[in-house]
Specification:
By secondary structure, this protein is of the alpha/beta class. The chain folds into two domains: about 140 residues, Rossmann fold (3-Layer(aba) Sandwich); about 300 residues, L-fucose Isomerase, Chain A, domain 2. About 35% of the residues lie in helices and about 25% in strands. It is built from 14 helices and 20 strands. Strands 11-12-17-16-15-19 form a six-stranded antiparallel barrel. The chain has a five-stranded parallel beta sheet with strand order 2-1-3-4-5, sandwiched between helices. Helix 7 crosses helix 9, helix 8 packs across helix 9 and helix 9 crosses helix 11. It is elongated. The protein starts with a strand and ends in a 14-residue tail after the last strand.
Amino acid sequence: MTIRIGYVGVHIATYYAVEHGQLTRAIDGLTALADELGFELVARAGGVMDAEAAAAAARDVATQHLDLLIVQTAACCMGDALLPFAELGIPLGIWATPEPRDDGDMQLNSFVSASIFVSTLRRFYRDPKPFKWLYGHVEEDSFRRRLQVTVQALRGRRALATSRVSWIGGLAPGFENLRFDQRDLHHRLGGATVLPRELRALVDIARQFGDAEVQQVQTEMVAAARAVNVPAEFVERNARVYLALREVCTQDGANAVALQDWPEMQSVYDVSPLLALCWLAEHDGIPSAHEGDVLGALTMRMLGAVASKPTTIMDIAAIDAERETGLLWHCGGSPHSLADSAGVTYEFHSTLGRKQASGPWGAVVNQTLAPGECTIAYISDDARSLWNFRAEVFADPDRAGFDGDRGWIRGFRHAGLAVPASDLLETVMTTGQEHHHGFVHGDVTEPLSELAAWMSLREIEPLRYRDAMQRPE
């Protein structure tokens, strides 16, 4: 998913942008960063000096399908030169550079001009235009870090806008908190599409595959596990479901899946399909959510694009305020590559089928998450809000966690500030967060915060714990 970033430098002739090589320095540096950060640069070589030239340049820019347009005040320029670019509706970066010297006659006046530009975006328009400010020379690490956050945020935004989710079987019964409006998602996320499918139709497709094709997938599945503790028939059925999911994605042009993995699946096919979901995510890179959670599938697609790593959704099954820890857990639906050095085993589902004569069912992927920094996030509240905090997965020698996929977490932070476990508990419960939480290794909370700003999502702020009931704003 390549992000396209445009560049144009503005200045007037009575200043010294040309003499100080402002435009060539910027283009050369951005070209190097494009290779490093993984975006495509569309740069205008000549500078823009007035509103008329800006209008001509904007007409060219409008055809480039940009995710971001960086307007550099290479030297002093009037605010009317910004307006044609602002009218395009493309996310804007406003870039200023330091002066080449701090005495004598003014050489560039870059920062003051950028200040005029950003205040124009805030004050001139009735609905202020969103923008990201940039400051410094292109070779500086601070500039690189700030641009990197933007590139990651725009990847997530593009991933959401281009999402096509095969929604198979609808929601698992009783999960009213995961309901959504397809029209709202399409509008708020810039084009995301949900494609409903019947669960029985998926099973019909699964049964049509030949034994040789199924056996090949089954063999690969078995080879990926440290141990297989379920009958071979359950792995074989998961192989069939995986092939059917892949076929549905091909037919739908889908790049994400939300599957109702219980209870109807057990009625029509006598299997828990979590291994199939894991394999689709692991083998094909298609985010796959259980329980029919479309918002979870969108969250996984967003996290995968921002972090360039495998993702999953899990529950926060416990919060221990005294130990300052929490437990991420689910029944066994996470990709194999999230596991620690012990790898994965295939087991019966730990809750489906117990106390029932027809159970247990399999196969699920049993694993402990690899230790390290992580991000917990979710596109919440019918795509109006973003849940977003940093934590650390760690191994607790005294507590293994529940069977399935799990990991103990600690060191909670939001917007760079520590969040006590008691505050996390207060926030989850008082704000009524959905019970699913997207997970990815690595701290990408800053890009997610920027994504929320670009998309006008309300970022959930931590609440301080109180014994009194609170009502969130």
